[in-house]
Design goal:
Chain A has 275 residues and is mostly helical. Helices cover 72% and strands 3% of the residues of chain A. Chain A is built from 12 helices and 2 strands. Chain A has a two-stranded antiparallel ribbon with strand order 1-2. The chains are: A mainly alpha (275), B mainly alpha (282). Chain A: It comes from Mangrovactinospora gilvigrisea.
């Protein structure tokens, strides 16, 4: 790999540059963000009303062996929707487009690993969306609801667990993106991925309300570590915080290995594909 | 392009070929262009199913846990969801890409529509066939048929007829609202956002019993954005709930008429706005 020729400092500068390009590219689509923010608020509001309508009159129920009050559930769905929105901007990855039009050749000629380029580019897209989220958050809390973290430790645990959650989102997105080297077309695949990931992340319904078999399935997939896990920590419903975050980190390593393995094979295919 | 100022609103050339023939010719062309790529066919349709299916999976988990949502059982909500989605599927499958009107105008493609022997709206309507839409229609039909056999409705010629008309009308309602919103592209050239918002409201709120919302939202979803007429009122009628609604019963019973009425309105709006069309010159 050509990446080894650079010093650590040069490489970090390159990563920051890759992210910055995406940040400035995204600001062109400001009005799109505003519309999707409105869509986010509709979703937060809808989820709230559904929970209100579904909950029994006592406004409390059991899930996963724990008491889940209506206000806690609304706080969960509000935070989950906003967090999912930040982590999953619509421009998932530029790989399919660039594979199709051949620009990927330029990417490969850069002295930074291709996987790193993808990852930091995606990070830039997400960072560009952050200001919009800061604007949206108060409105989301207004149409939905919020609760303080279960304890100071839970709040800290939440902040820490967002890091592996973010990395897992980047990695699964990149893994789906890199399949473009084989399929040359991922519009359909990426929609399917988004929908499946959103559901199993617990972005719509938390794992504690899923039927047993579905919960088992969800807990063996990496997606729950992106949305459900941090919020469960925040609400003090995750069990041991340290081992929960540890498990997230295991997922980061596993997914990174899968991505590296796929990347090596994918780059070999480029030669076959030609310009 | 120079044209003497004439009344485009009447779409003069449209009379040369019957509208339904030009419609079929254009629809055929749009379909053929998409079916060129068979490898993607399956995955694209599946993506439409996934897109719509995840919303239903959410409802299913909630009802599995709590029994009902606002007093509606799973099969009854599925019935609402199925009508909404089938109506939406019908609209998107036949409408091609009304969604791209802004681009069509901005890039000057619309000029060509005006000189062809078919109505401008019909050409836009059939501009491109988008495969995931077929997934919308398929998942809608599957959910609707499965739910219809489950709900305690008395199926006879009258009720089945009402259901079919309601689904058609539902598709017309969504189509008419999209055309009305798109019409304003002739003035502002940018209606994507308002149409995207409409689409958002339809797909988020359309599959639920409207009565779970506070009265202000119900009234908006009935009289401002007539979403309640698409699936909720027909479902309320067929599940024997039309007596206790927040509107008079006759209004719910008339819901199959809402679509045709809105289509007539949309046609007038489209024609009146088309007069404001100025070529972008590109």
């Amino acid at each position: 790999m050509s990446g080894s020729a650079l010093t650590v400092r040069q490489r970090l500068a390159a990563y920051a540059g890759l992210a910055k390009i995406q940040i400035s590219a995204q600001t062109i689509y400001r009005s799109n963000y505003l519309v999707s923010l409105l869509g986010l608020l509709f979703k937060v509001y809808l989820l709230k009303e559904v929970w209100v309508a579904a909950y029994p009159h006592s406004r409390a129920t059991m899930g996963h062996g724990q008491q889940i009050s209506l206000s806690a559930q609304i706080a969960y769905s509000t935070l989950a929707s906003v967090q999912y929105f930040v982590f999953n901007p619509w421009t998932l990855s530029g790989i399919p487009e660039r594979v199709r039009n051949g620009q990927v050749a330029v990417d490969l000629a850069r002295p930074v690993r291709y996987t790193a380029q993808m990852t930091f580019g995606q990070a830039g897209v997400m960072i560009a969306g952050l200001p919009f989220v800061i604007v949206a958050l108060p409105f989301a809390i207004l149409v939905g609801g919020a609760e303080a973290p279960a304890s100071a430790g839970a709040g800290l645990g939440y902040a820490v667990s967002l890091v592996p959650a973010f990395l897992i989102t980047l990695l699964t997105g990149s893994i789906v993106g890199i399949t473009a080297f084989w399929t040359l077309e991922t519009d359909g695949t990426s929609i399917i991925y988004r929908m499946v990931a959103q559901f199993f992340a617990g972005a719509l319904v938390p794992l504690w309300f899923m039927p047993g078999w579905l919960e088992t399935l969800a807990s063996w997939l990496p997606f729950q570590a992106t949305t459900y896990t941090p919020i469960a920590i925040y609400m003090g419903k995750s069990g041991s915080v340290v081992s929960t975050i540890g498990l997230q980190c295991v997922w980061v390593v596993v997914l990174w290995l899968i991505l590296r393995l796929l990347a090596v094979r994918a780059l070999r295919r480029v030669a076959l594909q030609g310009g | 392009m120079t044209t003497e100022p004439r009344d485009f609103g009447r779409e003069p050339a449209g009379r040369l070929i019957p509208w339904w023939r030009s419609y079929l010719v254009l629809l055929g062309a749009a379909w053929r262009s998409q079916f060129q790529y068979r490898a993607n066919l399956f995955i694209m349709i599946l993506s439409g199913v996934a897109w719509q299916g995840v919303g239903f999976a959410f409802i299913w988990v909630v009802v599995a846990k709590f029994g009902t949502i606002g007093g509606w059982s799973l099969s009854e909500i599925a019935f609402i969801y199925g009508i909404r989605l089938t109506a939406h599927g019908l609209f998107v499958v036949v409408s091609g890409r009304i969604f791209v009107l802004d681009t069509v105008i901005q890039e000057g493609e619309f000029d060509r529509y005006l000189v062809r022997p078919a109505g401008a709206l019909a050409q836009l309507w059939n501009r491109q066939f988008y495969l995931p839409h077929l997934g919308d229609l398929l998942s809608g039909l599957v959910i609707l048929i499965a739910a219809a056999t489950e709900i305690p409705a008395d199926w006879n010629v009258l009720t089945v007829g009402f259901l079919l008309l309601a689904v058609l009308s539902g598709g017309m309602i969504e189509g008419a609202l999209q055309v009305i919103a798109a019409s304003f592209a002739f003035r502002t050239m940018n209606t994507r956002q308002i149409r995207g918002m409409m689409d958002d409201i339809f797909s988020n709120f359309g599959g639920y019993p409207i009565t779970i919302f506070p009265i202000a939202i119900r009234l908006i979803l009935t009289f401002v954005i007539p979403l309640a007429f698409v699936a909720f009122f027909p479902s309320a009628v067929l599940t024997g709930r039309s007596g206790g609604l927040y509107v008079p019963e006759w209004l719910a019973l008339m819901s199959p008429l809402a679509g045709p009425l809105l289509v007539l309105l949309a046609r007038e709006v489209w024609r009146s706005q088309l007069k404001h069309y100025k070529s972008s010159g590109s």
